[in-house]
Amino acid sequence: MGCCKSKPTTGATIVKPPIDNAPLIQTLTLNYRFDTQPDAGVWTTGLVVTEKNQIVLCFRNQFKILIFDAEGEYIKSCETANRPFNVAVVPNSSQLLVTLPGNKSLQCVDTMNWKAGNELKTRGYCWGIFVKADKIFVGGDDEIYVMDLEGNNLKTIRVPGNCVRYLCVGTKEDKNIYFTSQNNVVHCISMEGADVFTHTSPFLVAPAGIAVANHNVYVAGFGSFALHKLEFKSGEIINSVALKKENGIKKPKALCFNRHLTRLYIANNGGKSIVIYNTRPGVYDPEQEVT
Q1: Which residues, at least 6 apart from 161, have a Cβ–Cβ distance to it below 8 Å?
Q2: DSSP β-ladder status, 74-79 and 64-68
Q3: What InterPro entries does its record include (predicted)?
Q4: Residue 6 has what pLDDT?
Q5: Which terminus of the chain has fewer Cβ atoms in its 10 Å neighbourhood, N or C?
């Protein structure tokens, strides 16, 4: 009960009751939450956790990123060359990359001294970002840019869905790209741009942040006040509710796991607070570390 099924490359088949009647999937337990207290009219659009478990936030309409320690205590801010939208960790380094749509560029940030450095130009507007190994994946307008760490464009993939504001790449053996779009669709494509699946559901409204862990896809439902979990069973996509309004989830925007997939971080209530969940024992798989 309380889930929605779909076949790959098709919309969901409505077979279950509304989201508020859906049972929880007991895989996440609340660790703690903290308030970010952004200025009026400012909302969190990007969230990432460094390898030292520092929490980095992008507040849209501010010319800076904010850094908090692992317990949610504010550390400092770092000025950026324009308004940031999203942020990603460069694995096995001290570097972050921040998308600056207004500049059509990515800005490097050194987490050792929290100084913003050079910019890498993108082919167009840049929104979502994910770094896997030595490749940067950037969401643009109807496109995903694949770049190397020097900023050279390796390929451009045309995709449906307007602005690609949130995207991720599967862990280790999963070579697919996952992203949400403004038309209430979750997309999965191959590295060559071929459709793997699309998913829609009446339960999933205004999908935003997206992450992959243990072969499942987690999606923030900004309009559905829920964290959705997409599982793949017998050739079908099962859309279940992992967390919902009764758990304090309200307008979730960005989300991410830590490196070892032992914690899930959600920018909640439009980013006015960050909630951190521990994954249950058995979720962590060292072969799926985000690298």
Answers
A1: 142, 179, 180, 181, 182, 183, 185, 187
A2: antiparallel
A3: 6-blade_b-propeller_TolB-like, Host-pathogen_enzymatic-act, Quino_amine_DH_bsu
A4: 46
A5: N
Tell me what pLDDT residue 120 has.
98
Extract the residue ranges of the chain whose pLDDT is less than 50: 1-26, 282-288, 290-291
Q: What angle do CA 56, 116, 32 make, to 5 degrees?
A: 10
The residue type at 10 = T
Q: What is the pLDDT of residues 95-142, one digit of tens each?
A: 999 999 999 999 999 999 999 999 999 999 999 999 999 999 999 999
Q: Whole-angstrom Cα distance, residue 137 to residue 128?
A: 8
Range of the domain at 107: 4-288
Residue 9 burial by Cβ neighbours in a 10 Å radius (0-12, 13-18, 19+): exposed
- How many domains would you assign to the chain? 1
